[in-house]
Amino acid sequence: MIANCLSAFTPPADSNPRCAFAGIFEMQLTRRQILELSGFGLGQLAVADLLKRPHLLADNAPPRVPVFGDLKTRSSHFPPRAKAVIQLIQNGGPSQMDLFDPKPMLSRMAGKPHPDGVEIHQPNNVNKLLPSPLKFRKYGECGMDVSAALPHLTSIVDDLCFVRSMHTEHNNHLEGLNMLLTCNIFPGRPVMGAWISYALGTENQNLPAYVVLRDPDGYTIGATQLWANAYLPALFQGVEFSTRGVPIHHLNPPGPALAGVQGANLKFLQKLNAEHLQKRPGETELEARIENFELAARMQLEAPDVVDLSNETKATKRAYGLDNPATAKYGARCLMARRLVEAGVRFVQVTTSPGQPWDHHSNIQEEMSKIAPATDQGATALIRDLKARGLLDSTIVMWAGEFGRLPTTQNGTGRDHNRNAFTIWFAGGGFKPGLIYGETDEFGYKSVVDRVSVPNMIATVCHQMGLDHRRIQFPHRGRLETPSDVTVTGAKPVGDLLTNPLYTS
Question: Does one domain contain both 131 and 272?
Answer without folding.
Answer: no
